[in-house]
Amino acid sequence: MSAVIIDGKQVASDVRADVAKKVAELKEKGINPCLAVILVGENPASVSYVTGKQKALAEVGMVDRSVHLPESTTEEELLKLIDELNKDKSVHGILVQLPLPKHINEDKVIMAIAPSKDVDGFHPVSVGNMMIGRPGFLPCTPHGIIVLLKTAGIETSGKHAVVIGRSNIVGKPVSILLARKDVNCTVTMCHTGTKNMAEITKQADILVVASGHPHTLTGDMVKDGAVIIDVGVNRIPDATKKSGFRLIGDCDFDDLKEKASFITPVPGGVGPMTIAMLMANTLESAQKAGN
Asked: What is the pTM of this model?
């Protein structure tokens, strides 16, 4: 048996195409969906992520209000900028690229973004809405994972989903979304404190792996036919590549693809969905502002 590879690039492309169509409709009504992405400093990974977001904004026809601030920007200056963007009715979404320089308090910055413009879904109000099933912005990567499962036609209702990782960005929110009635999984969360992890993962129908470590999940840890969603992005040295490294996930892909029924690759699986769902959230914010 060889697993069906879930093509996140294709699904993300379809989401962006749908967003672009709806952006064009809003523009006809005089509403120009706009996202402000704030980058502080020169973290290479962050610069690359922001470039990806800018490309997506151009593709879907949204206004790009990106702001690149120097590393020396003070917390006060950043909070003042967020306050200005909160008040600016032409801006529909605000995203501050993390991590921030050490002298800036990330929690304070996330809290400063108006929940109505929190298209990243990280504000405690957004998290609370997700928790109790109220309308609000869902965090992009976890929401993207649910869209991948649904698009691939994977049966989720009544299935046992095991999530490896408990971060606020992926592990915790995806556990909540998997347990919601529209997905209807029974969810177990594993983390660094979990004993006998393989015993738990072998029971899983669906595995979402977001541990941040390569080879967290190997073939001997899963049952035949399991669905595997790999959220990890790890750089490992590779002399054959021009960059000197290659990207791998948190799962042993080659080992698992012989046992799984469906699996996401890295790159090209969950990654592209994150930016696609960000575009969808920004569109939703602009639609609400226009009503």
From this structure: 0.95
